[in-house]
Amino acid sequence: MRTSIATVSLSGSLTEKLTAASRAGFDGVEIFENDLLASPLTLEEIRARCADLGLTIDLYQPMRDIEAVPADEFARNLRRARHKFELMRRLGADTVLVCSSVHPLAVDDDALAAYHLRQLADLAQDFGIRVAYEALAWGRHVNTYTHAWRIIEAADHPALGTCLDSFHILSKGSDPKGIEDIPGEKIFFLQLADAPLLAMDVLQWSRHYRCFPGQGGFDVAGLVRHVLRTGYRGPLSLEVFNDVFRQADAGPTAVDARRSLLVLQETLGLITPPASCVPTGVAFAELVTPDAEPVSAVLGALGFARTARHRGKPVDLWQQGEARVLVNTAGAARRDGTGLAAIGLESPDPAGAARRAEALLAPVLPRRRALDDAPLDAVAAPDGTELFFCATDRPQLPNWRADFADVGHEARGAATVRGIDHLALTQPWHHYDEATLFHRSVLGLHAQESVDVADPYGLMRSRAVTNADGSVRVALGVGAAPTDDTVHAQHIALATDDVVAAARRFRRAGGRLLPIPANYYDDLAARYEFADGELETYRELGILYDRDAYGTFRHCYTTTVGHVFFELVQRDGYRGYGAPNAPVRLAAQHLAR
Ligand SMILES: O=C(O)c1ccc(O)c(O)c1
Ligand SMILES: [Mg+2]
């Protein structure tokens, strides 16, 4: 189906919005009146710009407070409408959106509303224009789609139909099944928006918190299914009022928006992009650093051994159990200090995973490889993290590990780390919803609930995306103090079967663990019963503790190197990420700085 986006959904000038929509692959736009009023371009120039960009103008909006008002008011409305219809003719737009009235003088009189809309449609028809009447969720008397449709039926005019907007329908809890009672040709337009499930006034909710389908809590696909059954064949159009998108770069927002429609269309069986290919593990985490020494010291103290070196690049492979960490001193020019730059995802079908990622608009990264290196497909996540789709020691598939030559080092002592438990990636503040949708749709991971975490200097939000068996877990976090990279760093959480042994080993080898305040342990003692000496051990090492319905969680943190730190995690059935402990950890990290 054709896809469209309202200019109000994107940041910038009208020109910037149109360019972003076109680049992201939209077929058309809804032009929001304010964007037009504020543009220095003439109507003819806007029309030509859209044509050059391959965009149709699918809707002009909104007209407000038209119907069921006193007669003198309505006469003025018709005069205003004539003016707008002339404008639309010059613009080349043939559908106008009319919102249900919020006028203080509007009366609760369906017959009068129908009579007024019929007159408006009569006038519109002279200009070859169609009027799409939309029930605002906060409309004074008309605030449900069924009520709007009753009035349209009563008005009975070929140039009058309805505009359905998923936000207004789903925010009020209306049953979307009734949409099937409207003939498809009377649905003149379909606007789509999702929203997080919040208990608040619908107008505020709508104007500030809408998001793209798949990013909130509404069943937008279910609603569209009802619309498609009517025979509606107009565009799927996104109309998203959102405080974050208003400020973020229009380019990435438009791509995020288009991805949401691709995923929606896939859900509805309208398109079939390459199938989802869920990663089955973390092959490696790659750190870039200008100086390998500090991070190597931490890895060594954690019990990792530098086992191999890339044949052609200054990249070392550090390994312990199934945990592999690459330390790359070549890419550091791009970043300041040590950071987590890439993740290798063990994929059942690396090439297939890359094809899906590309089809869902993930930026494909050039393969930086030498002639005999294994071909590695990589894409960039919204936060810039490089995601490699790879295979480790699997016959028939290119083996990334073969690009590394063993250096013969082995770890001293038994392994205390088993593998990578999870990776925590800090998202730029304006990419949080986009990141969730990206990891869900491109990688096929499941998103858990978003949790709020109090940082002493602001609020953090965090949400985990995982595969079914938990062998891939990524915690996406967004911080309130985005400039504080020391605290809001990325981290690599390492799975251990004995966090006490792993922590002691780290300390004996000269590693420094994050100190946790005594008050925390006094509280733990009040909340849980521990075996003799257990709490003292946690207190001594800075080990944090949590429990959920499934088991217990013990974890501690190394101090931070550049923009990255490590966590040691002992997960005994526990499914979370120690969220109750996160405020204490964040405060301790601020203090340690
Ligand atoms: O918030 C508004 O006023 C508004 C305007 C036009 C729409 O299509 C809409 O859904 C909301
Ligand atoms: Mg709308």
From TrEMBL:
Residue span, VOC domain: 281-392, 419-571
Pfam entry (one): AP_endonuc_2
BP-aspect Gene Ontology terms: 3,4-dihydroxybenzoate biosynthetic process
Name assigned to this protein: 3-dehydroshikimate dehydratase
The protein's annotated pathway: Aromatic compound metabolism; 3,4-dihydroxybenzoate biosynthesis
Residues given in the record as Mg(2+) binding sites: H422, H491, E567
InterPro entries: DSD, Glyas_Bleomycin-R_OHBP_Dase, Glyas_Fos-R_dOase_dom, IolE/XylAMocC-like, VOC_core, Xyl_isomerase-like_sf, Xyl_isomerase-like_TIM-brl
Function statement: Catalyzes the conversion of 3-dehydroshikimate to protocatechuate (3,4-dihydroxybenzoate), a common intermediate of quinate and shikimate degradation pathways.
Keyword set, alphabetical order: Dioxygenase, Lyase, Metal-binding, Oxidoreductase, Pyruvate
Cofactor field: a divalent metal cation
Catalytic activity: 3-dehydroshikimate = 3,4-dihydroxybenzoate + H2O
UniProt binding sites for a divalent metal cation: E134, D165, Q191, E239
Enzyme Commission number, as recorded: 4.2.1.118
GO molecular function: 3-dehydroshikimate dehydratase activity; dioxygenase activity; metal ion binding
Family to which the UniProt record says this protein belongs: Belongs to the bacterial two-domain DSD family.
Family annotation (PROSITE patterns): VOC
